[in-house]
Structure formats: structure tokens, C-alpha cells
Design brief:
This protein is an alpha+beta fold. About 40% of the residues lie in helices and about 10% in strands. The strands form 2 sheets. The protein has a two-stranded antiparallel sheet with strand order 1-2. Strands 3-4 form a two-stranded antiparallel sheet. The protein binds heme C (HEC).
Length: about 200
């Protein structure tokens, strides 16, 4: 009987394998990270630059991709004020910080991250419930400042609590939501209904 251990059962072989696999996967991770960063940075093909909040954002079905895709249209400055890229970035980033500070993700999802008590906010700007564009801004401000009295709940019976958001904060949040709605999310969230093209 041969008592010698086969090469693949030796401890050194598995130690070496573990080291090589870990090292290889680390390199793969670095490559994937470097590949991803430019694709998720504002100003790239799928994630528009912040000044997109100066434009009309449509959401249209794309036959080729078989999904809904944001379509950036003509001028439609948010709150009637055209912002430079720097000012737009500052406003969107202020809005993002408010959503973090007020823990909107404790109830909502943003780009799919968060909780499932309340609707996903990725395309909230495009929600048909806000009616036409000029009214939408005013309705969103009124809703965010006093969600209990402007509840939209759509029969779910769930009401958003009043988070005592000021008008200035509401505007920043809306800028953040408008910018986020312009991101090409491969049709996420699925089944989101579109606002009509004219508005
Ligand atoms: C305690 C849970 C809760 C928190 C926290 C919360 N919401 Fe809501 N939100 C809801 C619920 C429930 C609804 C749906 C009911 C409604 O529309 O009246 C809603 C609806 C909304 C809508 C309308 C969505 C649409 O597509 O029409 C927006 C916009 C929104 N919330 C923004 C926010 C923002 C911004 C924050 C953080 C500042 C926030 N919410 C924090 C519960 C919450």
C-alpha cells in the first residue's frame, strides 16, 4: 500500500492555492472598481451631470432595450432658475445630505437601497401623481413640508410623518430627486408608470 499523500491533498498545495486565489480576486476587484467608478460618476453616460436639473426629464419606453429610459429634453429650470454646474451640484448634494440626515431610507428606497415601507424614490420626480411640471414643483414642496395633510397614499393607508422640513430643505431634496430621476437605472424600479410626454 502506498501511504504517500497525493499532491492535491497536501497542506502546502492548499495554502498556496488560497494565497493565489485571494491575490487574483483582489486584482479582479481593483479592475472592477476602476471600471465602475467612471460609470457611476456624475457627468457620465448613465449618470448625468448635476446641471441636468435645468432640463426637462422624460421617461420613455425604449424598444431596443425593452425598458423605460430617461430622456433629457429642453430647458426646464427647476424653480425657474437656471443653475451653473457648480451651483446645481451644491444644491443636489445639499438635498442628498438632508435625505441622509432625516433618514428617508428608514422608510424609502433610493436606487433600491433602504427600507420597503414607502415607495422607492428613484423616479419620484417623474411620478404621474405630481401632475404637470410647474404644478409638480409646488406640490412636491407642499407635500415634503406637510406630508400628513397632503398625503398621497394611493389607498395604502400609509402616511408619511411630518419631518418638519423647511422650504429651503424641500427645494434641495427636490433637486436631488430630479437629478436622481435622470439616472439610467436599466428600467429600475420596474413597472414605474410614466408621466405623459407633454408635461
Ligand atoms: C416614517 C416613514 C417615512 C419617512 C422617514 C419618510 N417617508 Fe416619504 N413617504 C412615506 C410614505 C408612507 C409615503 C407614501 C404615502 C404618501 O405618499 O402620502 C411617502 C411618500 C413620499 C414621496 C412621494 C413619492 C411618490 O412617488 O409620489 C416622497 C417624494 C417622499 N415620501 C419623500 C421623502 C423624503 C425626501 C424623506 C426624508 C426627508 C421621506 N420621504 C421620509 C413614509 C416616509
Amino acid at each position: 500500500m502506498n501511504n504517500e499523500m497525493p499532491w492535491w491533498a497536501s497542506e502546502t498545495f492548499w495554502k498556496k492555492t488560497a494565497i493565489w486565489v485571494t491575490a487574483f480576486m483582489f486584482v479582479v476587484l481593483v479592475i472592477l472598481t476602476l471600471d465602475t467608478i467612471p460609470q457611476i460618476t456624475a457627468g457620465s453616460e448613465r449618470v448625468p451631470a448635476y446641471a441636468v436639473i435645468n432640463k426637462h426629464i422624460g421617461y420613455e419606453f425604449n424598444d431596443e432595450r425593452n425598458m423605460q429610459v430617461p430622456v433629457i429634453g429642453g430647458d426646464a429650470p427647476l424653480f425657474g432658475k437656471k443653475l451653473s454646474e457648480e451651483d446645481a451640484e451644491a444644491l443636489v448634494s445639499h438635498g442628498k445630505k438632508i435625505t441622509q440626515g432625516r433618514n428617508c431610507m428608514g422608510c424609502h428606497t433610493l436606487l433600491g437601497n433602504g427600507s420597503y415601507f414607502a415607495p422607492d424614490l428613484t423616479k419620484a420626480w417623474l411620478d404621474p401623481g405630481w401632475s404637470s411640471e410647474p404644478e409638480r414643483e409646488a406640490l412636491m414642496i407642499a407635500f415634503l413640508m406637510n406630508p400628513e395633510e397632503n398625503a398621497r397614499s394611493f389607498g395604502s393607508g400609509r402616511v408619511m410623518p411630518n419631518l418638519h422640513i423647511s422650504e429651503e430643505e424641500a427645494k434641495a431634496v427636490i433637486a436631488f430627486l430630479k437629478w436622481m430621476s435622470s439616472i439610467d437605472t436599466n428600467g429600475f424600479p420596474y413597472n414605474f408608470t410614466v408621466i405623459d410626454k407633454e408635461s
